[in-house]
Amino acid sequence: xxxxxxxxxxxxxxxxxxxxxxxxxxxxxxxxxxxxxxxxxxxxxxxxxxxxxxxxxxxxxxxxxxxxxxxxxxxxxxxxxxxxxxxxxxxxxxxxxxxxxxxxxxxxxxxxxxxxxxxxxxxxxxxxxxxxxxxxxxxxxxxxxxxxxxxxxxxxxxxxxxxxxxxxxxxxxxxxxxxxxxxxxxxxxxxxxxxxxxxxxxxxxxxxxxxxxxxxxxxxxxxxxxxxxxxxxxxxxxxxxxxxxxxxxxxxxxxxxxxxxxxxxxxxxxxxxxxxxxxxxxxxxxxxxxxxxxxxxxxxxxxxxxxxxxxxxxxxxxxxxxxxxxxxxxxxxxxxxxxxxxxxxxxxxxxxxxxxxxxxxxxxxxxxxxxxxxxxxxxxxxxxxxxxxxxxxxxxxxxxxxxxxxxxxxxxxxxxxxxxxxxxxxxxxxxxxxxxxxxxxxxxxxxxxxxxxxxxxxxxxxxxxxxxx
Length: 469
Known about the structure:
Elements: H1 2-22, E1 35-36, E2 46-48, E3 57-58, E4 62-67, E5 71-72, E6 77-82, E7 85-88, E8 95-96, E9 108-114, E10 123-128, E11 132-134, E12 140-144, E13 147-148, E14 155-157, E15 159-160, E16 169-172, E17 181-182, E18 186-191, E19 196-199, E20 203-205, E21 218-221, E22 223-224, E23 233-236, E24 245-246, E25 250-255, E26 260-263, E27 267-269, E28 282-285, E29 296-300, E30 310-315, E31 321-323, E32 327-329, E33 342-344, E34 358-360, E35 373-378, E36 383-386, E37 389-393, E38 396-398, E39 401-404, E40 407-409, H2 411-417, E41 419-421, E42 429-431, E43 436-441, E44 455-457
Antiparallel strand pairs: 1-3, 2-4, 4-6, 5-8, 6-7, 9-10, 10-12, 11-14, 12-13, 15-17, 16-18, 18-20, 19-21, 22-24, 23-25, 25-27, 26-28, 29-30, 30-32, 31-33, 34-35, 35-37, 36-39, 37-38, 40-42, 41-43, 43-44
């Protein structure tokens, strides 16, 4: 073993001497050796060869430097002891080793996160193109002595799983032939028929993480909660075992005592909004309301005014004429047999009559002169029918004024019938009397058989809606 080491030292010694001679360095023999410092030169990114290390150095001794891992030199790095100092034989250095150009990433690209060139120690990071996601564990690669670390990562297209829904819900936006639902794709949901309510978002979008923007919605039965029912009220139509009262369910009301009168609707229906068409009625003792007295006074009769009670009237001044009956009777339904009479002098009129959905343009007075007129205006969205003026004529108001109601079409009304407005976005819509509106089927539906025409006109608050399926 020792002999092999000796031979190895001799081999390296001869090799170093040959290199020094080739570099043009010549060491003259000297009768007296001159020592060099034992503190050896430092070469960046290089280590001194073990065979060059000695406890002391004489004139002509050489040092061989070997580049560290990841670094290379185009020439040998050798220092020689010359006149008490270490002198470099060649202007050589250890430079970072180059890596080949990194491979391109399908559906992605890379950026440098450490370093400025593709040399040892440089790190690059791969980023997927929008619509794709990284599926590899490592998304960086580093230039090492043996080349790039890690494998080229993989970017897969972002897709979202299709919804698994029952037959109660309709999905608009699903693709055909198992085409994947890609990043940015949207789905829209509606319930498959009336009586169902969508719980959750109406639209969801495939996000960059492969998940939908919200959980899938569901369609539930539209139900109405029971309101308080007084003991004096009888109800027909309640379900057994407190089962939910669904859309379209009707309740009929009556009073348990014939002496009581029903205040409110006799029948209510569970509507598409989940509320009743009217508040639940109550049963009260039947009385007739006290009305305003216009130049008249009650001479016989005092409240409460129960059925059968009669009132007798008289004008406040003997010079006035009474318009209407001088006596009226409270009826079993809580209404008077006739309106309260009025008294006027010389053909004057009392306050103008109330017109539904209209107001007078001036404050009302207690009395109006003959031939004096008042003007009416209709409420918003209502249409005037007739002349807006009424005139006091011989103690009576003459004229024809009527305000026709508009039509309202809600988004829910259209969704129930699977229709939408033509040429405009689906939205809550008001239509004046006699104004036409055109509709079309929602995407993916077709007209129902026997459906009304898709162009309809509002008639005093009524507009039939077409239907699709």
